[in-house]
């Protein structure tokens, strides 16, 4: 029998934490091992407990959840983080993924989207709440990429390995999963990612996905949840 994934719930509302715990307690694959109501408490508990997954709110009373995510993914890269927030603006979503989160669910979808999100990120894949996905895809396709023609020419200058990693990143794979697929280390994937972003003058995951979609490198339906 597979062991349960351990979960740390981070939210400043005790009743909401109880609700999330109640949802997870009904699932055989997850076990809530602790809770935190502040960003500082979340960082301390995560470093001590090292849970498999953190369900993270953005609006915390001291440090916002995106900054907490950024710090924890830097020092504990094996931890998977799913953002569960009331915020649905694309700017929050983009920043959360840039900070290292693998999933994003809005609180109003928690009952239906939380477990699906946890199941997906447990595989090392990205998850975006279906209630947000269409809006995000529309924004990706409607917002032009700066200097697209110039970037098209630069794409041809990427090495074959960089082109392959660009496509896999845009499809939603994380460095660890890409590394396993290509038989290289996650650090090597990160180095390639940095080189790709620099050569193409891209500055975020959202820009990378939009660029790949514009060039037809990925199927944007992959982002429709």
Distance between the termini: 29 Å
Number of strands: 6
| Structural class by secondary-structure content | alpha/beta
Q: State the helix count.
A: 11
The name of the CATH superfamily of the largest domain reads Response regulator
Total of domains: 2
Question: If strands are numbered along the chain, what order do they take across the biggest sheet?
Answer: 2-1-3-4-5-6
Strand count, sense and barrel status of the largest sheet are: 6 strands, parallel
The value of Rg in angstroms is: 18 Å
- Give the overall average pLDDT: 83
CATH topology of the largest domain: Rossmann fold
Low-pLDDT segments: none
- Can you write the helix and strand succession as a string? EHEHEHEHEHEHHHHHH
In CATH, the architecture of the largest domain is: 3-Layer(aba) Sandwich
User: Which overall shape is indicated by the principal axes computed on the Cα atoms?
Assistant: elongated
| Beta-strand residue percentage | 5-15%
Relative helix content = 40-55%
CATH class of the largest domain, anyone?
Alpha Beta
Description:
Helix content is 54%, strand content 13%. Helix 3 runs parallel beside helix 4 and helix 9 (175-182) crosses helix 10 (186-200). The chain folds into two domains: 5-133, 3-Layer(aba) Sandwich (Rossmann fold); 143-223, Orthogonal Bundle (Arc Repressor Mutant, subunit A). The chain has helices spanning 14-25, 39-49, 65-75, 90-99, 110-121, 130-142, 148-155, 160-170, 175-182, 186-200, 205-214, and strands spanning 5-10, 30-36, 53-56, 80-85, 103-106, 127-128. Strands 2-1-3-4-5-6 form a six-stranded parallel sheet, with helices on both faces. With 225 residues, it is α/β, with parallel strands linked by helices. The mean pLDDT is 83. The protein contains eleven helices and six strands.
């Amino acid at each position: 029998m597979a062991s349960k994934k351990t979960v740390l719930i981070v939210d400043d509302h005790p009743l909401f934490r109880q609700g999330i715990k109640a949802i997870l307690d009904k699932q055989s694959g997850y076990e809530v091992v602790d809770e935190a109501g502040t960003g500082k408490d979340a960082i301390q508990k995560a470093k001590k407990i090292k849970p498999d997954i953190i369900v993270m709110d953005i609006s915390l009373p001291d440090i916002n959840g995106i900054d907490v995510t950024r710090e924890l993914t830097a020092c504990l890269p094996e931890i998977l983080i799913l953002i569960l927030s009331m915020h649905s603006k694309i700017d929050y979503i983009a920043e959360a993924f840039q900070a290292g989160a693998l999933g994003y669910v809005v609180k109003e979808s928690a009952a239906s989207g939380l477990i699906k999100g946890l199941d997906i990120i447990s595989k090392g894949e990205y998850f975006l709440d279906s209630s947000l996905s269409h809006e995000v895809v529309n924004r990706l396709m409607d917002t032009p990429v700066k200097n697209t023609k110039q970037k098209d020419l630069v794409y041809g200058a990427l090495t074959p390995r960089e082109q392959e990693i660009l496509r896999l990143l845009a499809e939603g794979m994380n460095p660890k999963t890409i590394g396993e697929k290509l038989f290289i280390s996650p650090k090597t994937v990160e180095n390639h990612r940095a080189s790709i972003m620099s050569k193409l003058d891209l500055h975020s995951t959202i820009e990378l996905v939009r660029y790949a979609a514009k060039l037809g490198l990925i199927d944007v339906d992959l982002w429709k949840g």
